[in-house]
Amino acid sequence: MPSPSPLVEELKRVLKERGLTYADVARSLGLSTASVKRLFSTGSFTLRRLEQTCALAKVALADLATRAEERTTATAKLSLAQEQEIVADPKLFLVTWLVLNRATFEEIVRDYVLGEREVLRYLIRLDRLRIIELMPGNRVKLLVDRHFVWRTAGPVQAYLFDTLLREFFAVRFAGAAEEFYFHGGAVSEAALAQLSGAIRDAAGACVGIIERDREFPARRRGGAAFVLALRPWNYSGFSRFLRA
């Protein structure tokens, strides 16, 4: 039996968003509900029936194709509008942060004061934002790639700098499990490029450790964070003494 195409799968999502059922599609196409279910399960739409169903759902076929392509292509960066919507709602930002870190629906409900319906509502929003694909059983498929980053100087990065990092650095890093290294010096452009590569490699290694740790769901986890940063920089307290 042929599998439904990404286009047909996206059409199913649009119908769900519009509150339309297979029975509604059946009436529109002049078919039985069983025949419509078979069309969706096999993906055996004719172009005319596909266009008729798109008309019922009030979505252009070209827009449906764009949506399907975006969903099957992992993104490395969100749009400005996506980030703005995420940071505008603290709970949505929390759920986004958790699913990007591979937390499951059950883990979120277990570990946070959010009810099942509330978490599901936020997952549906993330699905509509095309950050995840909400699968049967409230499972989540990420639509962002492994090297996903927030927009430079975007809404989420601004939020991180203004809130999270202020709190993160408001300690002395003297605890047994805390680490802090700071080092700088005068370097050439070639050395700066090498440092950039080393930081990217280190970040990838750290993310890999976190992802591999998710393979052990029974293990009790506590929060942790790491920051790696590099920029050409002279301390203002020193640079004011530099010769012109």
List the helices and strands and how they pair.
Elements: H1 6-18, H2 22-29, H3 33-42, H4 47-57, H5 61-72, H6 80-88, H7 90-100, H8 105-111, H9 116-128, E1 132-134, E2 140-142, H10 155-168, H11 189-213, H12 236-239
Antiparallel strand pairs: 1-2
Helix pairs in contact: 1-4, 1-5, 2-3, 6-7, 7-9
Overview of this protein structure:
The chain is mainly α and 244 residues long. It folds into three domains: 6-72, 434 Repressor (Amino-terminal Domain) (Orthogonal Bundle), CATH 1.10.260.40; 80-142, Orthogonal Bundle (Arc Repressor Mutant, subunit A); 171-239. The protein is 56% helix and 2% strand. A two-stranded antiparallel sheet has the order 1-2. Strand 1 (132-134) and strand 2 (140-142) form a beta hairpin. Helix 2 packs across helix 3 (33-42) and helix 6 crosses helix 7. The longest helix has 25 residues, at 189-213. The model has no long low-confidence stretch (mean pLDDT 87).
